[in-house]
Amino acid sequence: MKNVFLLFWLLILSSTVLAQSFGAQLALGANFSQVDGDQLGGYNKLGANVGVQINREINDMWQAAFEIRFSMKGAKKVIDPDAPPTFSLKLNYQYIEVPLLVKYTRFDKVTVYGGPSVGVNIVSKREENGIESEVDELDFLEFGFNLGGTYHLTEKIGIDLRHSYSLLSVTDNSVVSLGPTWFNRTGWFNRLFTVGVTYTP
C-alpha cells in the first residue's frame, strides 16, 4: 500500500513537468461498487479512487487523455439488524488502472468522456464472518469501460461522476452468475460509480 501512494505522489510531481506540453488533472474520489454475479446486490462497498490524468487537445471540441488510478472495488453484504442472524461477507479488490479516454469539451460547464481501461489487480481479499483470506481466483488483469462527465465549478475545480464496468469476467473459474448481469453473461464483473473532485493545476 505504501508503494501505491508513493507512486501517486510521484505522478503528482511529474504532472507539473508534463503540463508544459500536455494538460494535467488530479482526481480524488470515492467508489460505490458491487460485483455482478456474486448475488450481493447494491453498491455497498465503499473505496478510494485517486489518480492523475494527462490530456492533450485534439481540436476545439475533443481531447485525448490517459490516466493512472488507484481504485478500490469489491462487494459487501449489508446486515439487516431486524432479520435473523446471517453471515457477513466483504470482497476487497484493489487495482492500478490505466484508462484511455476521449473527452468532448464543447459544452460550456460540462465535459463528457468515455473509453476503455486496463487494470492490474494488486489486492484480492475475502472477509467472511470477520475472517479474512486471500482470493486466488481473481484474474491479474481487468478490461473495463468508463463513461462519465465532469461539471466545472471553476477553471480549476470540477465535480466528476463516472460509471465503470468490466468488459470480461474478472475470474476464469467456472462461476454460475446467480445475480443480475448485463446481457446475461456468466462470470463476475466489477461495476461501480465513482464520485469525486478534480483539480487542474
Protein model, in words:
The protein is mostly beta strands and 201 residues long. It has a single domain, classed as Beta Barrel (Porin), CATH 2.40.160.20. The protein is built from one helix and nine strands. The chain is elongated and about 55 Å long.
Describe the structure using short key phrases.
201 residues, mainly beta, Porin, eight-stranded antiparallel barrel, 1 helix, 8% helix, 57% strand, elongated
Beta-strand segment tally? 9
Report the sheet with the most strands, covering strand number, pairing sense and barrel closure. 8 strands, antiparallel, barrel
Run of helices and strands: HEEEEEEEEE
CATH fold naming? Porin
Radius of gyration in whole Å, from Cα?
18 Å
Determine the strand fraction and express it as a percent band.
Answer: over 45%
Judged by helices, strands and strand pairing, the structural class is mainly beta
Number of discrete domains: 1
Strand arrangement, major sheet: 1-2-3-4-5-7-8-9
Shape: elongated
- Could you give the distance between the termini? 26 Å
CATH class: Mainly Beta
Summarize the structure.
The chain is mainly β.
List the helices and strands and how they pair.
Layout: H1 2-18, E1 23-36, E2 45-57, E3 62-76, E4 89-104, E5 110-128, E6 131-134, E7 141-152, E8 157-166, E9 189-199
Antiparallel strand pairs: 1-2, 1-9, 2-3, 3-4, 4-5, 5-6, 5-7, 7-8, 8-9
